[in-house]
Amino acid sequence: MEAHDRGATRAWVLHPDIKTEKSRRAPGPALEEAVSLARALPDLEVVGSEVVPLPKAHPGQLFGSGKVEELAARLKAEEIELVLIDGPVTPVQQRNLEKVWKVKILDRTGLILEIFSDRARTREGVLQVEMAALSYQRTRLVRAWTHLERQRGGLGFVGGPGETQIEADRRAIDEALTRLRRQLAKVVKTRDLHRAARKKVPFPIVALVGYTNAGKSTLFNRLTGAEVMAKDMLFATLDPTMRAVTLPSGREVILSDTVGFISDLPTQLVAAFRATLEEVLDADLILHVRDISHEETQEQAQDVEEILAALGVDDSTPQLEAWNKIDRLEPEARAQVETLAARRANVFAVSALTGDGLDALLDEVSEKLTDPRTAETLFVPFAQGRRRAWLFEQGVVTEEEQQDEGFRLQVFWTARQRARYMAL
Ligand SMILES: Nc1nc2c(ncn2[C@@H]2O[C@H](COP(=O)(O)OP(=O)(O)OP(=O)(O)O)[C@@H](O)[C@H]2O)c(=O)[nH]1
Ligand SMILES: [Mg+2]
């Protein structure tokens, strides 16, 4: 979003509460989250917000005509320039509403893409956001194409007055996507090399994951003494950061802080950020940070688990949950949360802000990482070079001898590494 000379863009936030929607969210917290998302964009002033109850979505204008008129009057009186609609808006609905309301419209995906694009700092981050935005634009072109009508989108999307123009736009997008994919592959490769180098350092990797604003960066900073931006703002962190830390037990680990998750994370973003998100697949331990003081903490945890599962994280990576922000709870609620956490082996009630509960959590992190190792002899045929390379990457090879048909290797590894090798 561009900065306006005459101050912030005046914005209005709408959460359509569609009764027929299967994955309907509680409207109150959903609207609150949408407003937080809007606030996460710079140079934007959220003038007002509201839930719009809808029996069903209208194809042409999303809302019923009475509501559209009513909102038109309000938006005009408030001099609104941008309306954020927390949900999917079809290109046709968008064009129609922009015309009657004389405002610019951004839907949830468009808004999240704008935030990501504002946050991207590294080359990889910038490329990933560009790819996600283009893939999104492309789907809007395809849909508009069936209507052969002019349309505009939130990120200054291309408009095309007819089939040929749209076909041309689509081709241009495809070409741009191919270019980006190639550039990204190069960046990822460099990073993979760094990662391989890091793997040689025998420190296990602990990945912090969680819903946006759960307190990952606050915890990261507290444990590492780093100064990653931690703010009461959605998607404060975009680019992954890694730091070595010595735990109280003396054990050294590498802690990684990364982008937070959100419900209905645009698929284009998940696809584009796969490389970044997949770092958690490589982790030796996943630390799921939850804002236990949030009214939707349960739903948020479920969203995070779904995204982790979609990325391919399975039970082979040990997981711990940090129920964060206990300092925000009333004494009674806090005692209850602490009792509940104490009963579960992998759950710890903590406050990243005050430091409460962190010692117990870190002891368990150390504990979980000291997997017993065993020695074993393996035979790897020449044809399985990839498996042999993996063993070296993991740093588990203690001896190697070349034979007629392959290599005989002595390894010293954990049960988890063994299982992963077998699955290769
Ligand atoms: N009261 C309280 N506030 C906390 C605690 N941990 C984090 N916060 C606050 O919660 C907000 C979000 O914290 P971050 O550390 O930026 O959250 P994050 O998970 O990194 O968020 P993203 O980077 O957006 O995914 C900040 O205002 C923090 O100060 C805590 O234990 N107690
Ligand atoms: Mg963060």
Indicate the CATH architecture of the largest domain.
3-Layer(aba) Sandwich
In the CATH hierarchy, what is the class of the largest domain?
A: Alpha Beta
What name does CATH use for the topology of the largest domain? Answer: Rossmann fold
Question: End-to-end span in angstroms?
Answer: 45 Å
Major sheet: arrangement of strands: 6-7-5-8-9-10
Total number of beta strands: 13
Shape: globular
- The CATH homology group name of the largest domain: P-loop containing nucleotide triphosphate hydrolases
Order of helices and strands: EHEHEHEHHHEHEEHHEHEHEHEHEEH
By secondary-structure content and strand pairing, the structural class works out as alpha/beta
Give the helix proportion (percent range): 40-55%
Which cofactor or ligand species appear? Answer: guanosine-5'-triphosphate, magnesium ion
User: What is the tally of helical segments?
Assistant: 14
Overall tally of domains: 4
- Largest beta-sheet details: 6 strands, mixed
Radius of gyration, whole Å:
25 Å
Query: Would you tell me the overall average pLDDT?
Result: 86
Estimate the strand proportion.
15-25%
Low-confidence stretches: 1-5, 142-161
